[in-house]
Amino acid sequence: MKIAAVISEYNPFHNGHLYHLNKTREQTNADAVITIMSGNFVQRGLPASIDKWSRAKTAIDCGIDLVIELPALYSLSSAEIFAYGAVSLLNSLNVIDYLSFGSESGNIEDLKKIANIIAFESDDYKRILKLNLKTGLPFHKARFEAIKYCTNNSDITNLVKTSNNILALEYIKHLIKLESSITPVTIKRLGGDYNSQGLNSSYSSATAIRKHLNNSTEYEHIMKHVPEKSFEIIENLYKEGSEFSYEDKMVDYLKYKMFSSKDININLPEASEGIENKIFNALKTATTFDDLVSNIKTKRYTYTRISRILCQYFIGFDEYNIETLRKETCPYARILGANSKGREVLKLIKKSSDIKLISNIHRGESLVSDLENQSSYAYSLLNNKIDYDYEYKKKPYIII
User: Is the CB of residue 360 less than 8 Å from the CB of residue 338?
Assistant: First the structure.
Protein backbone atom coordinates (compact mmCIF):
# COMPACT_ATOMS: atom_id res chain seq x y z
CA MET A 1 0.00 0.00 0.00
CA LYS A 2 1.32 3.45 -0.96
CA ILE A 3 0.71 5.95 1.85
CA ALA A 4 0.99 9.76 1.81
CA ALA A 5 0.89 11.99 4.88
CA VAL A 6 0.04 15.64 5.49
CA ILE A 7 0.72 17.72 8.58
CA SER A 8 -2.26 19.83 9.54
CA GLU A 9 -4.24 21.91 12.00
CA TYR A 10 -7.56 22.01 10.10
CA ASN A 11 -8.67 24.97 12.18
CA PRO A 12 -11.16 24.66 10.51
CA PHE A 13 -11.03 22.29 7.50
CA HIS A 14 -11.65 24.52 4.45
CA ASN A 15 -11.71 24.31 0.65
CA GLY A 16 -7.96 24.90 0.41
CA HIS A 17 -7.38 21.83 2.59
CA LEU A 18 -9.67 19.75 0.36
CA TYR A 19 -7.77 20.99 -2.71
CA HIS A 20 -4.48 19.99 -1.07
CA LEU A 21 -5.84 16.55 -0.17
CA ASN A 22 -7.07 15.90 -3.71
CA LYS A 23 -3.82 17.13 -5.31
CA THR A 24 -1.84 14.93 -2.90
CA ARG A 25 -3.74 11.84 -4.06
CA GLU A 26 -3.26 12.91 -7.68
CA GLN A 27 0.48 13.64 -7.48
CA THR A 28 1.50 10.67 -5.32
CA ASN A 29 -1.06 8.12 -6.56
CA ALA A 30 -1.40 7.16 -2.90
CA ASP A 31 -3.80 4.44 -1.76
CA ALA A 32 -4.29 6.24 1.56
CA VAL A 33 -3.67 9.73 2.96
CA ILE A 34 -3.17 10.22 6.68
CA THR A 35 -2.64 13.38 8.69
CA ILE A 36 -0.69 14.33 11.79
CA MET A 37 -3.00 17.00 13.24
CA SER A 38 -2.43 19.47 16.06
CA GLY A 39 -4.59 18.92 19.12
CA ASN A 40 -6.36 21.67 21.04
CA PHE A 41 -3.57 24.27 20.75
CA VAL A 42 -1.93 25.38 17.51
CA GLN A 43 1.47 26.52 16.30
CA ARG A 44 0.82 30.26 16.20
CA GLY A 45 0.22 30.19 19.96
CA LEU A 46 -3.57 30.02 20.17
CA PRO A 47 -6.26 27.60 21.30
CA ALA A 48 -7.87 25.84 18.35
CA SER A 49 -11.24 27.46 17.64
CA ILE A 50 -12.82 24.01 17.29
CA ASP A 51 -11.86 21.10 19.55
CA LYS A 52 -9.62 18.35 18.18
CA TRP A 53 -12.31 15.64 18.18
CA SER A 54 -14.65 17.71 16.01
CA ARG A 55 -11.79 18.59 13.68
CA ALA A 56 -10.73 14.93 13.44
CA LYS A 57 -14.30 13.94 12.53
CA THR A 58 -14.38 16.67 9.89
CA ALA A 59 -11.08 15.45 8.41
CA ILE A 60 -12.34 11.86 8.13
CA ASP A 61 -15.70 12.94 6.70
CA CYS A 62 -13.89 15.10 4.12
CA GLY A 63 -11.64 12.29 2.88
CA ILE A 64 -8.63 11.87 5.17
CA ASP A 65 -8.18 8.18 5.99
CA LEU A 66 -6.46 8.38 9.39
CA VAL A 67 -5.94 11.19 11.92
CA ILE A 68 -3.09 10.97 14.43
CA GLU A 69 -2.63 13.69 17.02
CA LEU A 70 0.42 15.94 17.26
CA PRO A 71 0.74 16.58 21.01
CA ALA A 72 0.74 20.14 22.35
CA LEU A 73 4.40 19.80 23.34
CA TYR A 74 5.23 20.05 19.61
CA SER A 75 2.18 21.79 18.15
CA LEU A 76 2.58 24.78 20.47
CA SER A 77 6.19 25.45 19.49
CA SER A 78 8.35 27.22 16.91
CA ALA A 79 8.20 26.10 13.28
CA GLU A 80 11.37 24.04 13.83
CA ILE A 81 10.02 22.07 16.82
CA PHE A 82 6.53 21.78 15.30
CA ALA A 83 8.04 20.27 12.14
CA TYR A 84 10.43 18.01 14.06
CA GLY A 85 7.63 16.61 16.22
CA ALA A 86 5.41 15.82 13.24
CA VAL A 87 8.13 14.55 10.87
CA SER A 88 9.84 12.38 13.48
CA LEU A 89 6.47 10.90 14.47
CA LEU A 90 5.73 10.04 10.83
CA ASN A 91 9.20 8.61 10.38
CA SER A 92 8.73 6.38 13.44
CA LEU A 93 5.65 4.75 11.89
CA ASN A 94 7.83 3.18 9.16
CA VAL A 95 4.98 2.98 6.62
CA ILE A 96 4.87 6.48 5.07
CA ASP A 97 6.00 6.91 1.46
CA TYR A 98 5.31 10.64 0.91
CA LEU A 99 5.00 13.80 2.97
CA SER A 100 2.87 16.36 1.12
CA PHE A 101 2.75 20.02 2.18
CA GLY A 102 1.62 23.33 0.77
CA SER A 103 4.02 26.11 -0.11
CA GLU A 104 3.94 29.50 -1.75
CA SER A 105 6.81 28.29 -3.94
CA GLY A 106 5.43 25.06 -5.35
CA ASN A 107 9.00 24.16 -6.46
CA ILE A 108 10.35 21.21 -4.48
CA GLU A 109 13.88 21.43 -5.93
CA ASP A 110 14.36 25.06 -4.84
CA LEU A 111 13.04 24.21 -1.38
CA LYS A 112 15.44 21.27 -1.15
CA LYS A 113 18.42 23.52 -1.96
CA ILE A 114 17.69 25.80 0.99
CA ALA A 115 16.73 22.89 3.27
CA ASN A 116 20.18 21.40 2.68
CA ILE A 117 21.83 24.68 3.71
CA ILE A 118 19.96 24.83 7.01
CA ALA A 119 20.25 21.08 7.64
CA PHE A 120 24.04 20.86 7.29
CA GLU A 121 24.90 24.37 8.63
CA SER A 122 28.24 25.29 7.09
CA ASP A 123 30.71 27.34 9.12
CA ASP A 124 29.78 30.47 7.15
CA TYR A 125 26.08 29.87 7.75
CA LYS A 126 26.56 29.42 11.52
CA ARG A 127 28.82 32.48 11.75
CA ILE A 128 26.39 34.83 9.97
CA LEU A 129 23.41 33.43 11.87
CA LYS A 130 25.15 34.01 15.21
CA LEU A 131 26.18 37.56 14.27
CA ASN A 132 22.63 38.49 13.29
CA LEU A 133 21.10 36.98 16.42
CA LYS A 134 23.51 39.10 18.49
CA THR A 135 22.10 42.26 16.87
CA GLY A 136 18.67 41.38 18.28
CA LEU A 137 17.06 40.05 15.10
CA PRO A 138 14.42 37.37 15.63
CA PHE A 139 15.54 33.92 14.51
CA HIS A 140 13.64 33.79 11.21
CA LYS A 141 15.17 37.11 10.06
CA ALA A 142 18.65 36.16 11.24
CA ARG A 143 18.37 32.89 9.35
CA PHE A 144 17.22 34.71 6.21
CA GLU A 145 20.38 36.83 6.28
CA ALA A 146 22.55 33.72 6.77
CA ILE A 147 20.93 31.94 3.81
CA LYS A 148 21.25 35.11 1.72
CA TYR A 149 24.98 35.11 2.46
CA CYS A 150 25.35 31.44 1.47
CA THR A 151 23.57 31.67 -1.89
CA ASN A 152 23.81 34.14 -4.75
CA ASN A 153 20.30 33.39 -5.98
CA SER A 154 17.93 36.05 -4.62
CA ASP A 155 14.86 34.21 -5.95
CA ILE A 156 15.72 31.14 -3.89
CA THR A 157 16.63 33.20 -0.82
CA ASN A 158 13.27 34.98 -0.91
CA LEU A 159 11.53 31.63 -0.39
CA VAL A 160 12.41 31.93 3.31
CA LYS A 161 10.14 34.95 3.77
CA THR A 162 6.69 33.31 3.60
CA SER A 163 4.84 31.25 6.22
CA ASN A 164 4.16 28.03 4.32
CA ASN A 165 7.59 28.00 2.69
CA ILE A 166 9.22 28.31 6.13
CA LEU A 167 7.33 25.26 7.38
CA ALA A 168 8.07 23.40 4.14
CA LEU A 169 11.81 24.01 4.62
CA GLU A 170 11.60 22.69 8.18
CA TYR A 171 9.82 19.54 7.02
CA ILE A 172 12.46 18.83 4.38
CA LYS A 173 15.30 19.70 6.76
CA HIS A 174 14.12 17.16 9.33
CA LEU A 175 13.60 14.49 6.69
CA ILE A 176 17.24 15.05 5.70
CA LYS A 177 18.56 15.02 9.27
CA LEU A 178 16.59 11.90 10.15
CA GLU A 179 17.85 10.22 6.95
CA SER A 180 14.22 9.38 6.30
CA SER A 181 13.02 7.36 3.31
CA ILE A 182 9.90 9.56 3.10
CA THR A 183 9.76 11.58 -0.15
CA PRO A 184 8.76 15.27 0.19
CA VAL A 185 6.10 16.58 -2.20
CA THR A 186 4.90 20.18 -2.34
CA ILE A 187 1.70 21.66 -3.74
CA LYS A 188 1.49 25.34 -4.59
CA ARG A 189 -0.81 27.21 -2.25
CA LEU A 190 -3.74 29.04 -3.87
CA GLY A 191 -6.10 31.78 -2.71
CA GLY A 192 -5.83 34.09 0.31
CA ASP A 193 -2.57 34.63 2.16
CA TYR A 194 -1.98 32.51 5.29
CA ASN A 195 -2.65 35.55 7.50
CA SER A 196 -5.33 37.12 5.30
CA GLN A 197 -8.26 38.56 7.28
CA GLY A 198 -10.77 38.71 4.42
CA LEU A 199 -12.74 35.93 2.75
CA ASN A 200 -11.38 35.17 -0.72
CA SER A 201 -13.39 34.45 -3.84
CA SER A 202 -11.49 31.18 -4.42
CA TYR A 203 -9.68 29.73 -1.39
CA SER A 204 -10.01 31.64 1.89
CA SER A 205 -7.47 31.31 4.69
CA ALA A 206 -8.35 29.65 7.98
CA THR A 207 -7.62 33.02 9.64
CA ALA A 208 -10.35 34.72 7.60
CA ILE A 209 -12.85 31.91 8.24
CA ARG A 210 -12.21 31.94 12.01
CA LYS A 211 -13.15 35.63 12.13
CA HIS A 212 -16.74 34.60 11.33
CA LEU A 213 -16.97 31.57 13.59
CA ASN A 214 -17.63 33.35 16.86
CA ASN A 215 -20.49 35.44 15.50
CA SER A 216 -23.75 33.50 15.25
CA THR A 217 -25.11 36.06 12.78
CA GLU A 218 -22.12 35.72 10.44
CA TYR A 219 -21.09 32.08 10.50
CA GLU A 220 -23.26 31.24 7.48
CA HIS A 221 -20.97 33.51 5.43
CA ILE A 222 -18.34 30.76 5.48
CA MET A 223 -20.61 28.16 3.82
CA LYS A 224 -19.00 28.69 0.39
CA HIS A 225 -15.50 28.52 1.84
CA VAL A 226 -15.58 25.11 3.52
CA PRO A 227 -16.64 21.65 2.28
CA GLU A 228 -20.24 20.63 3.00
CA LYS A 229 -19.23 18.10 5.69
CA SER A 230 -17.10 20.72 7.43
CA PHE A 231 -19.95 23.22 7.46
CA GLU A 232 -22.35 20.59 8.84
CA ILE A 233 -20.12 20.04 11.88
CA ILE A 234 -19.71 23.78 12.45
CA GLU A 235 -23.47 24.30 12.17
CA ASN A 236 -24.14 21.43 14.61
CA LEU A 237 -21.78 23.02 17.14
CA TYR A 238 -23.86 26.21 16.95
CA LYS A 239 -27.08 24.26 17.37
CA GLU A 240 -25.64 22.50 20.44
CA GLY A 241 -24.96 25.90 21.96
CA SER A 242 -21.21 25.41 21.87
CA GLU A 243 -18.85 28.34 22.07
CA PHE A 244 -15.79 28.45 19.90
CA SER A 245 -12.51 28.76 21.78
CA TYR A 246 -10.72 32.08 21.49
CA GLU A 247 -7.60 33.50 23.06
CA ASP A 248 -9.39 36.39 24.82
CA LYS A 249 -10.81 33.84 27.26
CA MET A 250 -7.27 33.15 28.53
CA VAL A 251 -6.58 36.68 29.74
CA ASP A 252 -8.26 36.49 33.17
CA TYR A 253 -6.70 33.10 33.88
CA LEU A 254 -3.26 34.46 32.95
CA LYS A 255 -3.81 37.40 35.30
CA TYR A 256 -4.76 35.15 38.17
CA LYS A 257 -1.84 32.77 37.64
CA MET A 258 0.79 35.50 37.46
CA PHE A 259 -0.60 37.87 40.09
CA SER A 260 -1.07 35.07 42.63
CA SER A 261 2.40 33.62 42.06
CA LYS A 262 5.18 34.23 44.59
CA ASP A 263 7.74 33.99 41.79
CA ILE A 264 6.87 35.51 38.41
CA ASN A 265 9.86 33.96 36.62
CA ILE A 266 8.65 31.99 33.60
CA ASN A 267 10.54 28.73 33.13
CA LEU A 268 10.11 28.36 29.37
CA PRO A 269 12.80 27.98 26.64
CA GLU A 270 11.40 30.81 24.49
CA ALA A 271 11.12 33.22 27.44
CA SER A 272 14.46 34.85 28.18
CA GLU A 273 15.13 36.55 31.51
CA GLY A 274 13.24 39.84 31.89
CA ILE A 275 10.27 39.12 29.63
CA GLU A 276 8.19 38.14 32.67
CA ASN A 277 8.32 41.75 33.90
CA LYS A 278 6.88 43.01 30.60
CA ILE A 279 4.17 40.35 30.79
CA PHE A 280 3.36 41.23 34.42
CA ASN A 281 3.01 44.93 33.61
CA ALA A 282 1.01 44.35 30.43
CA LEU A 283 -1.43 42.08 32.28
CA LYS A 284 -2.35 44.92 34.65
CA THR A 285 -4.28 46.79 31.96
CA ALA A 286 -4.97 44.19 29.24
CA THR A 287 -8.60 43.38 28.48
CA THR A 288 -7.99 41.41 25.27
CA PHE A 289 -5.31 38.97 24.20
CA ASP A 290 -4.31 41.25 21.33
CA ASP A 291 -3.81 44.17 23.76
CA LEU A 292 -1.69 41.95 25.95
CA VAL A 293 0.58 40.63 23.20
CA SER A 294 0.91 44.01 21.47
CA ASN A 295 2.14 45.62 24.70
CA ILE A 296 4.78 42.90 25.21
CA LYS A 297 6.19 42.34 21.71
CA THR A 298 9.59 43.74 20.81
CA LYS A 299 12.01 43.53 17.90
CA ARG A 300 13.21 40.12 19.12
CA TYR A 301 9.93 38.89 20.59
CA THR A 302 7.51 38.62 17.67
CA TYR A 303 3.73 38.54 18.11
CA THR A 304 3.60 34.78 17.51
CA ARG A 305 6.47 34.03 19.88
CA ILE A 306 4.77 36.01 22.67
CA SER A 307 1.48 34.22 21.93
CA ARG A 308 3.20 30.84 22.31
CA ILE A 309 4.85 31.85 25.58
CA LEU A 310 1.52 33.03 27.03
CA CYS A 311 -0.29 29.91 25.83
CA GLN A 312 2.40 27.61 27.25
CA TYR A 313 2.28 29.50 30.55
CA PHE A 314 -1.53 29.28 30.63
CA ILE A 315 -1.38 25.50 30.18
CA GLY A 316 1.46 24.98 32.67
CA PHE A 317 4.40 24.10 30.43
CA ASP A 318 6.58 25.98 32.92
CA GLU A 319 6.20 23.03 35.32
CA TYR A 320 8.09 20.70 32.93
CA ASN A 321 11.52 20.63 31.32
CA ILE A 322 10.09 21.00 27.83
CA GLU A 323 13.41 21.98 26.22
CA THR A 324 14.75 18.46 26.79
CA LEU A 325 11.44 16.78 25.97
CA ARG A 326 11.04 18.52 22.61
CA LYS A 327 14.32 17.05 21.34
CA GLU A 328 12.88 13.54 21.62
CA THR A 329 10.50 11.74 19.29
CA CYS A 330 6.94 11.47 20.54
CA PRO A 331 6.72 8.10 22.39
CA TYR A 332 3.31 7.24 20.98
CA ALA A 333 0.92 7.80 18.06
CA ARG A 334 -2.55 8.64 19.32
CA ILE A 335 -5.47 7.85 17.00
CA LEU A 336 -8.19 10.51 16.76
CA GLY A 337 -10.11 9.07 13.80
CA ALA A 338 -10.04 6.55 10.95
CA ASN A 339 -12.15 5.19 8.11
CA SER A 340 -11.95 1.67 6.64
CA LYS A 341 -8.82 2.52 4.62
CA GLY A 342 -7.31 4.13 7.70
CA ARG A 343 -7.87 0.93 9.68
CA GLU A 344 -5.86 -0.93 7.03
CA VAL A 345 -3.06 1.59 7.55
CA LEU A 346 -3.26 1.04 11.31
CA LYS A 347 -2.67 -2.70 10.81
CA LEU A 348 0.50 -1.91 8.88
CA ILE A 349 1.64 0.59 11.53
CA LYS A 350 1.15 -1.98 14.31
CA LYS A 351 3.51 -4.35 12.49
CA SER A 352 6.20 -1.80 11.62
CA SER A 353 6.13 1.16 14.04
CA ASP A 354 8.95 2.03 16.44
CA ILE A 355 6.41 3.67 18.77
CA LYS A 356 3.15 2.39 20.22
CA LEU A 357 -0.32 3.16 18.91
CA ILE A 358 -2.84 4.32 21.51
CA SER A 359 -6.46 5.48 21.46
CA ASN A 360 -6.50 7.20 24.87
CA ILE A 361 -3.87 8.51 27.25
CA HIS A 362 -3.46 8.44 30.99
CA ARG A 363 -1.47 10.55 33.39
CA GLY A 364 1.86 8.97 34.19
CA GLU A 365 2.16 7.17 30.85
CA SER A 366 4.84 9.65 29.74
CA LEU A 367 5.74 13.29 30.30
CA VAL A 368 4.40 14.03 26.80
CA SER A 369 1.03 12.51 27.72
CA ASP A 370 1.02 14.36 31.07
CA LEU A 371 1.44 17.63 29.19
CA GLU A 372 -1.34 16.61 26.79
CA ASN A 373 -3.69 16.01 29.71
CA GLN A 374 -2.66 19.36 31.16
CA SER A 375 -3.45 20.99 27.81
CA SER A 376 -6.91 19.43 27.75
CA TYR A 377 -7.65 20.62 31.28
CA ALA A 378 -6.68 24.14 30.21
CA TYR A 379 -8.75 23.91 27.01
CA SER A 380 -11.82 22.90 29.02
CA LEU A 381 -11.69 26.35 30.66
CA LEU A 382 -12.14 27.95 27.23
CA ASN A 383 -14.81 25.70 25.71
CA ASN A 384 -18.17 24.98 27.34
CA LYS A 385 -18.53 21.78 25.29
CA ILE A 386 -15.47 20.10 26.80
CA ASP A 387 -15.51 18.21 30.11
CA TYR A 388 -12.56 18.67 32.42
CA ASP A 389 -11.56 15.01 32.13
CA TYR A 390 -12.71 14.29 28.58
CA GLU A 391 -9.25 13.03 27.61
CA TYR A 392 -10.10 9.84 29.54
CA LYS A 393 -13.61 9.50 28.13
CA LYS A 394 -13.40 10.34 24.45
CA LYS A 395 -12.92 7.58 21.89
CA PRO A 396 -11.59 7.93 18.33
CA TYR A 397 -14.07 8.61 15.53
CA ILE A 398 -14.05 5.34 13.59
CA ILE A 399 -16.08 4.63 10.45
CA ILE A 400 -16.73 0.88 10.26
Answer: no
- Listed in sequence order, the residues at least 6 apart from 260 whose beta carbon sits closer than 8 Å to its beta carbon are none
- 21 vs 33: CA distance, rounded Å: 8
pLDDT digits (tens, 9 = 90+) for 211-269: 877 665 667 778 889 999 999 998 888 888 777 888 999 999 999 999 998 888 888 99
**pLDDT-derived band of residue 192, with 50, 70 and 90 as boundaries?**
low
Cβ distance 174 to 87 under 8 Å? yes
* Angstrom distance (rounded) from CA 68 to CA 169: 22
Does this model's pTM top 0.90? My answer is yes
Please count the residues of the chain: 400
**Regarding beta strands 32-38 and 41-42, do their DSSP bridges make them parallel or antiparallel, or are they unpaired?**
unpaired
Residue pair 198/212 in contact (Cβ under 8 Å)? The answer is no
- Residue 198's pLDDT band, with cuts at 50, 70 and 90, is low
Q: Degrees (nearest 5) of the Cα angle 257, 81, 111? A: 145
Q: Are 309 and 283 a contacting pair, CB within 8 Å?
A: no
Q: For residue 244, what is the DSSP state? A: P
In degrees to the nearest 10, what's the CA dihedral of 22, 25, 28, 29?
-140
With the CA atoms of 174, 36, 327 and 102 taken in that order, what torsion angle do they form, in degrees rounded to the nearest 10?
A: 40
